[in-house]
Amino acid sequence: MTQDEVLCDIGFIGLGVMGKNLVLNLADNGYNIAAFDLCAEKIQAVIEQDRLENTTDNARVFGCSSYTELLSQLKAPHLIVLSVPAGAPVDQVCENLIGAGVQPDDIVIDTGNSLWVDTVAREQKYKSNFHLFSSAVSGGEVGARFGPSLMPSGSPYAWTRIKPIWEAISAKVDSTTGKPIERSKPGQIISEGEPCAAYIGPAGAGHYVKMVHNGIEYADMQIICEAYHILNAGLGLSANEIADIFAKWNDGVLDSYLMEISVEVLRHKSVDTGTTLVDLILDKAGQKGTGLWTAMSSLEVGCPAPTIAQAVYARSISSFKELRIQASTTLYGPVLAELSSEEKQEYITQLHDAIYCAKMCAYAQGFQLMKLAAKEHGWSLNFASIAKIWRAGCIIRATFLQSITQAFDRNENLDNLLLDNFFAEQLSERQLNWRKAVCGATMFGIPNGALSSALSYYDSLRSETLPANLLQGQRDFFGAHTFERIDKADGKKYHVQWSTSQRETIVIE
Ligand code: 6PG
Question: pTM for the whole thing?
Answer without folding.
Answer: 0.95
